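Below is one such protein, fold included:
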Amino acid sequence: HKSNWISLAVREANHQALIFLKAEGKKEVYVIPFDINGRAFILRVEYEGDVVVFVSGDGNVHAYRNRKGQEGKAQFMWSRPEGLTRARHHLWLDLPETYQDTSQLYLKAQDMHPMHLLISRWRIHTAQLFRWVTNVAEEAKSMDIFEVMSSASTFAQAQFDAIIAVYEKVDVMALLPWTTKESSEEALKKPNGRRDRPVPGTKRRLDPMTRDHFGFRKLLMLATDHAFVYGINSEDGTILWEYMADEGQPYKLLDLRSATAHGPPLIGVIQEVHRPSAKSFYRVTVVNALTGKQVDDLQPIQNWKRTLATLRIPIIDAESRIHVWAFATADLKLFFIPSEAHVHSIAESVYFHHADPMTLEIQGYEIQTNMRIRPSWKQSLPKPAGDERIVAEKKTFERVSSQGYVLTDRSTLYKYLNPNMVALAVHSTKAASLSVYVIDIVAGVILHHATHEHVPTDRNIHIQSTDMHYVLYTFEADSPSSSGCRMNVLSLWESDKPDERDERTTFSSFHSSMPVIVTKSFVCPSRVNALAATVTRNSVTSKSIIAALDTGNVMSIPKVMVDRFIPPGDPTVLPFSAKSVASYDLDVAGVTTITTSPTALESTSLMLCYGLDLFLTRIAPSRQFDVLKEDFEKGTVMAVIFSLGLAIVIARSLYNRRNVNVYWK
């Protein structure tokens, strides 16, 4: 970007980046001591004076200064992990309990030397002891007492960290000449020969992450367009590890093994592999969710083309304790993870669908109990303008705690709870129209269809569902009477008359009646870039609708504000207020996706916005009714309890002495 540049070249040699800058009258050569092995390549270079700034293949930004007398190598200045600015896929994962360390040790005991096993057990139990002391000190410090104990715990933790640092530098297996096991140095290497390095700008943990009491600390995985998957601590945003998808772009992340099973939690990274001489295909890589390393002994050997659906089969592999996932291909074949899982039958049929976004053909399939796939139904949506395409899709399954809505006269309207519903949005640029369909994917029945005119663009079309009978969608209207962002709400009910419901004890898509649809329209003051709804552990708490606006604000809208019992009429303006802003005074730019995750508290849900910026916070729609306030006087309560206990002891002593004196009279 300098006018006097003549040439710029970037080469790779000995795992280092060599940047050649040739300008008028001078020639600069930068030898960057930066290991680009695993970073694919350098995407962009900027040069100013003696400073060069470049973007590596993982999206991170690095700055180096070229100084004389540094043996031809540039001096490192700073680095920023900007690879997360292009996140596309996410996965929430609960962390293991504190005893997960020992359970992993038991699984590896048969492959470890006794001396290595003894030292590992000493390290784990010592770490757990100091963790317990630190937690007790932190609890005491939060109560403003026992400050001496907190200081002692901090000193002990520092000493323990020093011991562990020395331990990590010692190759225990190398000290044992009679063993032929692989050294710890080799064990730390990845399958592609690249040794793990901490991500620039992050900190390293000595112990695996563990679950906190309230469930706020989770493991968040984000897959980016740079073919990298990041493991992030949801508590403080620390990047714990990064994994490079060597085969291709990450297509989807799968939860293979939870933290409650024996062994570390595992995830599956579906990669879309492109070959110059062949068609693209899909492959799955199994990764340890705590370390970001590949698990070689669980890698599937099959590759498949054109996936119709990715389904989680209600079966757990007995050997690896992995949830079995099935991949349905276009030639009606099934591939499983793990690949050695022999699934011959299932208890009941599994249904799925595939929607072609261009032809608007929706095909329903059934995986029978004998694990054979058969087409069950087919729907072709109308295309009057010829350019219609599916721009948004959302499945409405969710846990529900209440089956009805109690009215003021104590009568009940019962919800139409169908776990097989899918909402589709079809847009036409020529006709400037938007069509919304609600379809039962098991029976292939269209439950609802609505068309909106004067919708010129599909940029702000989003669909979200909540409570398994509410469907919300936003779009940009440009009608002569009114224009702007609209939010429409569909609520499905079994009947429009109170206390009327289907008496069947189990729901069946083949025998259910058509629901009663009630719609309501709202006007949004700003354009909506992303839409989501809060999710809690048991779905007892009131819900909130999360909307990311183009102004940079993230709004939390109580669900009661878009309820069906608002009087019908013209579109109502959503009353956004300062209390509804979930992003506080921060501007969250470029949000494309919002995701929520439940915590151990029924009142609280975690909310993550990502796109250009990453923003995570806690949402409590009904306030934190199950947690004491931060300013709760714990010290006062404990002092009162202690005083009452002391008074009881003194009173009992006086009472016993009085009785003795009475007996001697």
User: Anything to note?
Assistant: The longest strand covers residues 278-288.
